[in-house]
Specification:
There is one protein chain. This protein is α+β, with helices and mostly antiparallel strands. The chain has three helices and eight strands; from the N terminus they run ααββββαββββ. Strands 1-2-3-4-5-6-7-8 form an eight-stranded antiparallel β-sheet, with helices on one face. The longest helix has 18 residues. The chain is elongated, with a radius of gyration of 20 Å. The termini are far apart.
Length: about 150
């Protein structure tokens, strides 16, 4: 009897999830994305039930757009290099307390947000436990920070 219970648990947790797809990507998300990024290539939709992330390439750059499951665009981020940021944004970072030698820049991204605004996100790391996202506007002002794992 224990064997059958073990077999059932094994199937439940390891075999069945590999065959199951929660649902198909909502058509409205695919349509909104196609209209917004008609030149996108290498498109990969990831469904998180309440949101859909779309990883894609456009003009040789890597992007990730996020939509609600109703097709509402929440924003797009593009991987970027810190050295290519405007002098204003780099200066804002240099004036922050995270510019000292104890914090290392891990990654940088440009966030394109609804309403036409942009933010610049810099991930800094002090050690394996202390990591933060820093969000700057185009004037180099630190808008907020967020702890990350």
């Amino acid at each position: 009897m224990k064997f059958f219970v073990s077999l059932f648990v094994f199937q439940l947790f390891f075999i069945l999830p590999s065959f199951a797809q929660i649902r198909e990507i909502p058509a409205i998300v695919e349509e909104t994305f196609a209209n917004q990024y008609p030149r996108a290539t290498h498109i990969d939709f990831k469904d998180f039930v309440v949101k859909v992330q779309v990883h894609f390439e456009q003009d040789g750059e890597l992007y990730m757009a996020t939509y609600t499951n109703k097709g509402l665009w929440k924003g797009t981020e593009k991987a970027y290099e810190f050295d290519k940021l405007s002098d204003t944004v780099k200066d804002g970072f240099q004036k922050s307390k995270y510019a000292d030698d104890n914090w290392e820049i891990e990654e940088t991204a440009i966030l394109y947000l609804p309403g036409g605004s942009e933010q610049y996100r810099v991930l800094v790391r002090k050690n394996d436990v202390q990591k933060k996202y820093l969000f700057f506007n185009d004037k180099g002002r630190l808008l907020r920070t967020a702890v990350t794992l």
